[in-house]
Amino acid sequence: MKAVFTLLKKDPVLLISGILAVLSMFFVHPDAAYLSYIDYRVLALLFSLMCVMNGFQEQGVFRKLAVLVLERTTNTRQLTAVLVFLCFFLSMLITNDVALITFVPFTILLLSITGQQKRLIPVIVLQTVAANLGSMLTPIGNPQNLYLYNLSGMSLGAFVSVMLPYTAVSLILLILSLFPGKKEPVSLNSVFLDIPPVDRKKLTCYFVLFLLALCAVLRLLPWQLILAATVISLCFINRPLLWKADYGLLATFVFFFLFIGNMGRLPAVSGLLARILSGHELIVGVLSSQIISNVPSALLLSGFTSALRPLLVGVNLGGPGTLIASLASLISYKQYAQTEGCRKGSYLLVFTAVNLLFLAVLLAVSLLPGDF
Known about the structure:
19 helices, 0% strand, globular, transmembrane, Cit_transptr-like_dom, Citrate transporter, transmembrane helix
């Protein structure tokens, strides 16, 4: 029982998805059809991208980029803008999770050294919003996008065209969010810590693997090739990276695949869920994301509707809102909660207010005449 509570605290979504999968097996007993439930392509691509991003992060690539840009900043508004928009734009390529894992600790260090601790809450909250909303533009920006892009079979252009209006509005909102508050001079010339040099051999390998992964995502190469290339390459150059992938997330995907597959074989249940979703995919996606977060929502709801475009919009717009609406948001909160003198209540208040404002505006945009 203690182990269950420990897992619930550490990864509640994994535990709940596992329980749902097991319970569903009482209604649909395990058989050969179970093997057809699992989307092996998505799992392989997720695993490969995780390994490559961990490799880039290990080499300090993203921090080097941040230092390069930040060296030109002269005031706190510019500093905030750089820290926020690094998360916004890089999340499109490195995922929202990796963007926050990389830049939130960097932000805490930077603002602490420069005596700007009072800006920690607003900057980290905006970084979190930026990473969640920037990541929605591309198929590799977040796990739910990769899954729905693969499931829908839509082209890259079609995918981007669906999400571009919301991404553009998000960018405008983020720009406007930078103006409130006092602009103060800041000097960063002497605060950067030395970052160790990169291993060019490893970095080249990671870059090639990343390009291969992109080709596999765009269906230009078979997923089996990138999976084999990733495993074999890392076995030779950096075997520990293979163990740093988020296996909890991969297991969560498998559990939801099993649950959805079993529910789909129960006509009464699948019919009820399909009727609830029909014509309401966007709003149901937003609402369910607030409760169970957007990755599980995408996995769960996609099994009971063929209208994947509005569902794609819904689970992405559902990223802002509650702290658990996007599990990436928990990364920022946990990092901030470990800082000296942190004010958790103030953080949650600012986080909720800012996120609900962004969510309200984006929902209003979704109601404008268009495809949905």
